[in-house]
Amino acid sequence: MKTLIKNCQLISDGINMPNAAILIENDRIADITDAANTTSSDVEKIIDATDLYAMPGFIDIHTHGAHGVHTCDATLEAIEQIAKYKMQNGVTTFCPSTVTMPENVLLDTMKSVEAYRQTGNYAKVAGVHLEGPFLNPKKLGGQNPRFIQEPNIGFIRKLHAISPVAIVSFSPEQPGGYEFTRQLQQLGIIPSAAHSNANYREIGEAIQYGLKHLTHFCNQMTGVHHRDIGAVGAGLLHDELSVEIICDKIHLCPEMIKLIFKCKSMDSIMLMTDSSYLSGLPDGEHELRGLHTSIKDGIIRLANSDTLCGSGLKYNIGLKNVAQITELPLEQLVRTTSLNQALALKLDHIGRLAKNYLADIVLLDKDFEVQHLFINGTMKF
Ligand SMILES: [Zn+2]
User: Fold this and answer.
1) What is the distance in A from the centroid of ligand 1 to the CA of 97?
2) Is 127 in a helix, a strand, or coil?
């Protein structure tokens, strides 16, 4: 099966081709050429992508749910529904993300994700992102305090045996947290500091043990003070730390997003959504797993409080916000939506539009609205 996308503006890491053609053969990109030189004799399907960007499909490493269902509902149908919603926002690969829950719920969640990995037909799963339950009680945000526990690698091994765990978000300053960081690394899992009260020295210590990543950077972690620059200062200062950022302009103000892009290399920033199960739902009051929440203009907070509780962000809008705020070229920004994640998660042949790469492609109009999406060479819409 051959498909040709022609007349697109191709954006990939370091590449901005204003009039490109992408030839897809089976699941791979077979060729990329200037559209003017393209022949299409034995092609079965031609997509005219005039006025559209073609970018590598987005990789959302942190997303909890959508349209009223949550990863921790632990059903195949829930994971399917989330995977389908993510596709509509340009996401071709994602990490279904848990919240702090009882152990039996997390075990069942891994089973449902594994069932989806075997049969799923929408966005691909790159492994589960466990947010909690190993969190500092002082920085819980919207996480349920009833089910937090101290770092426990034995429990991670149990979960990982059911379905691959890609990332664990935990507070490294909790008892046993440094050793836990090293053990995650040994299992091939990305250790990521989250909901952390660690000071700068403690984050530095965790880096020695292999800490690689900071979860929803700046949110629910120690801020910059001139006598202790905290976890936020560590993230800005240390090149070896990658930061995942929610670019809805609420979790981080536009100036903070600018500052992050000024301090960090483009290789160490990953856009994600942290989208809650309330994402895609109308404004109003809702129950979030025993917590009372309120949505207004797509922003989700604990009711009667300023505390943010996940987000309602669509991935494509996050990129649009960052492009407007930083004014950086898309061929640089596109690293933060796919390539950095693919490299960190060791996903083979994903994250670029290049010959022999898997044809995971999103076509967006110039307002960043998603028009078409391909996964493994199949046009999903
Ligand atoms: Zn989250």
Assistant:
1) 7
2) coil
Of 187, 164, 191, 46, the C-alpha closest to 96 is 164
- Cα 344 to ligand 1 centroid, rounded to whole Å: 18
As a whole number, mean pLDDT of residues 126-133 equals: 96
* Distance from C-alpha of 126 to C-alpha of 123, rounded to nearest angstrom: 10
**What pTM does this model have?**
0.95
Instruction: Please tell me the distance between residue 354's alpha carbon and the centre of ligand 1 in angstroms.
Output: 32
Gap from CA of 60 to ligand 1 centroid (Å) = 12
157 pLDDT above the threshold of 70: yes
Residue with tokens 């046009």: 379
The Cα-based distances of 327 to 268, 319, 322 in angstroms read 18, 11, 8
Residues in the chain: 381
Phi, psi of 378 (to 5 degrees): -95, 130
- Mean pLDDT across the chain, nearest whole number? 95
Q: What is the pLDDT averaged over residues 102-108? A: 97
Place of tokens 């836990």: 180
Q: What is the DSSP letter of 228?
A: B
- List 190's β-bridge partners, or say none: 167
Cβ-contact 220, 195 below 8 angstroms: yes
How far is 151 from 127, CA to CA, in rounded Å? 20
Q: From ligand 1's centre to the CA of 61, what distance in Å?
A: 10
CA 169–ligand 1 middle distance (angstroms) = 9
- Residue 141 CA to ligand 1 center (angstroms) comes to 10
Which residue reads 């705020």 in tokens?
A: 325
CA 99–ligand 1 middle distance (angstroms): 7
- What spacing in Å lies between the alpha carbon of 46 and ligand 1's midpoint? 39
Q: How many CA atoms lie within 13 A of 201 on its CB side?
A: 2
* Single-letter amino acid, residue 214: L
